[in-house]
Amino acid sequence: MSGSIPRRPTEVAAIAAAARSVRPLPPVELLLAAVRLCQVRGDRAGVRLAAARSARALGLEVAE
């Protein structure tokens, strides 16, 4: 028995659709403000998400 998880057709379609479209990032200033807001609110997941998006907007390499 293999340990792999079967993929659902909707999952495959969603990944393919996301790969076809390029979503513009908000301005870096707004993303950095989001990082600060998340820090103030104690939202660690939000900090990581906003920081990663900020790095992508600046053209930096982001580890997943």
Return the structural class: mainly alpha
Instruction: Determine Rg (CA atoms, Å).
Output: 16 Å
The helix tally amounts to: 3
Quaternary form: single chain
**What is the number of strand segments?**
0
- State the helicity in percent bands: 55-70%
What integer is the average pLDDT? Answer: 85
Shape: extended
Query: Major sheet, described briefly?
Result: none
Strand content: under 5%
Low-confidence stretches: none
Gap from first CA to last CA = 29 Å
Query: Could you state the order of secondary-structure elements as H and E?
Result: HHH
Please outline what is shown here.
The protein has 64 residues and is an all-alpha fold. Helices cover 62% and strands 0% of the residues.
Please, could you describe this protein's structure?
Helix content is 62%, strand content 0%. The protein has 64 residues and is mainly α. It has helices spanning 9-20, 28-41, 44-57. The chain has three helices and no strands. It is extended, with a radius of gyration of 16 Å.
Kindly list the characteristics that best describe this protein.
mainly alpha; 62% helix
Can you lay out the helices and strands and say which pair or pack?
Blueprint lengths: L8 H12 L7 H14 L2 H14 L7
